[in-house]
Amino acid sequence: MAVEMALATTMATETQFHVLAVDDCLIDRKLIERLLKTSSYQVTAVDSGSKALEFLGLNGENELRDSEPASVSPDPYHQHIEINMIITDYCMPGMTGYDLLKKIKESKYFKDIPVVIMSSENVPSRINRCLKEGAEEFFLKPVQLSDVNKLRPHLMKGRCKEEEEEEDQPNNKRKGMEEIVNSPDRTRTRYNDGLEVV
């Protein structure tokens, strides 16, 4: 029974990963969206870096419009949507994928969100530059299911970081409740009446 509950919990958390896909090409955007959905990810797709920043609630100065916590958009339609990863095309008009990566990594709220860059051009200097700036992966287009399968470890690592940060917060309600419940005056003393277990 406990194993079934753990498995159900694991499966439930795996389906909760939400990826923001950014690509100016409709065909590539639909392809990455379909691959991600096939792998049980929730997907939001936008067609530019500026729309990605808008979705995240970042303005041009790389600050949140309100003081909402990370991964919450101030847009009422997108309230309480958590983004676990951003996958973006490199070559886009206006803001490139590299520019978007830099904005994300400079943000104090979103810097820990894994970012993956994709491009149809295999340019080693571009790939190295993105990886040095903090990209988790660099995929060559067309992106395939085998590429999408490489995302899960980065998502799990990101989730672990989020959980660690939650535990470190002084006003963490769950941690406070656990401390109250497990306090010595809230637990019963166990006596074994001197019986010895053989």
UniProtKB/TrEMBL annotation:
Keywords, alphabetical: Phosphoprotein, Transcription, Transcription regulation, Two-component regulatory system
Ranges where the Response regulatory domain occurs: 18-156
InterPro entries reported in the protein's UniProt record: ARR-like, CheY-like_superfamily, Sig_transdc_resp-reg_receiver
Coiled-coil ranges per UniProt: none
Protein name from the UniProt record: Putative A-type response regulator 5
Matches recorded under Pfam families: Response_reg (PF00072)
Residues the record lists as 4-aspartylphosphate modifications: D89
One of the GO biological process terms: cytokinin-activated signaling pathway
Region (Disordered): 158-198
Keyword Cell inner membrane belongs to the record: no
Keyword Phosphoprotein: yes
Compositional bias ranges of the Basic and acidic residues kind: 185-198
Gene3D superfamilies (alphabetical): 3.40.50.2300
PROSITE patterns from the UniProt entry: RESPONSE_REGULATORY (PS50110)
Gene (name only): dkRR5
Organism: Populus canadensis (Canadian poplar)
